[in-house]
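Appendix B. One record, verbatim.
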Amino acid sequence: MTTTHFSTTLSTTQPHPQQLVVLNMARVAKKLTNTGVSQAKPKEKTYELSDGEGLILRIHTSGTKKWLFKYHTPHTKKRTNLTLGAYPDISLANARIKRTEAKDLLAQDIDPKEHKDQTALNTAKAYNNTFKHVAFQHHEIKKTTVSADHAKDVWRSIELHLLPTLGNIPIHKLDAPKVIHTLKPIAAKSLETVKRLCQRINEVMVYSVNTGLIHHNPLAGINKAFETPVKQNMATIPPSELPSLMTKLNQASIKLTTRFLIEWQLHTMIRPSEAAGTRWDEIDIEKALWSIPAERMKKKKAHTVPLTPQTLSLLEAIKPLSGQFEYVFTGDRNPRRPANSSTANMAIQRMGYKNKLVAHGLRSIGSTAMNDEGFDADVIESCLAHVGKNEVRNAYNRSDYLERRKIAMCWWSDFIEKAATGNMSLSNSKQGLSIVNS
């Protein structure tokens, strides 16, 4: 009897094999089907259908059906829901894929909801960072390292050639085919312009990489898609033609201030924009030095120009015209503004030097003459305010070469004065004022 009783007890505590099959079938039956999802009707109250493993279809009283993934957050273990989307936009199969993706994140201790929100934020931020927006941000930094005129030229070229077609494209969507398509019509007119634009685009892209907006620069080799422009130096003349230039300058029908500016630029070997913006408070007559602040220089490095007897004579001669104003070379329409940086260049063209000499080329005349005379190359580069990449060497050049530059600059002013013999250069004496066409 005892044995029989024991057997009866086992049979009442263990499910029969057929019962196990029924239980398994019941579990499978809980899985949703496409038909069940599509035919689920709204009721008086919102209700949910479960697909298992946290996937829920919520049916609202309005008939709207939304997929949810119910889970516990990785760290706080708080019960929460992740909205996966609405049915039928998100099918049952896609909802299950999204559930799997969410579970994969949880396995890495990543909250799926936080991940979704952050991804949406990053996407919105990426699309707000258009090429125009990022280019402007970069330009705000760029203009602190170059002269104001150069900064304006850079931004003007970006506005003219790039922003109309690329401006509204998110920076992470820029690729080589888009940029090449934009630059091809420009390349047909000027390869030199395309070369500069490629450089400027890449500066913006490198800035984007360095600030974390993009992971890599897909435009690094964009210049290789175009022919290399033939290098053209600034139009200039050899020192042997300086007497002819001084003759034409003496006879030219140009404003007196413009002639002063051309001679000043010739003697000082300074760039057109830096020369046109000369201020009286930058001049130290007693020390015979012109100190140009960093913000006015192309490379944002302060530069000191030794003033020769001839350049001091120029300042003495022009002082009655502009001494009461801020700028040595005043503007045509507004004497409280400096002369336009292109004034000298336009005057030189009208003197018959179109395609032969530009204002910037006046520097080359002095450089060539000094090299021919045998002056130290580093001294000449310092006279031209050329900045190398070696900061220690640059500092040495600025401090040690000043006295040697004084000698070189005085030699150059004497060279100009000899070339102007008989033409009454303004730098010789005030007498030149009486024969200059104003």
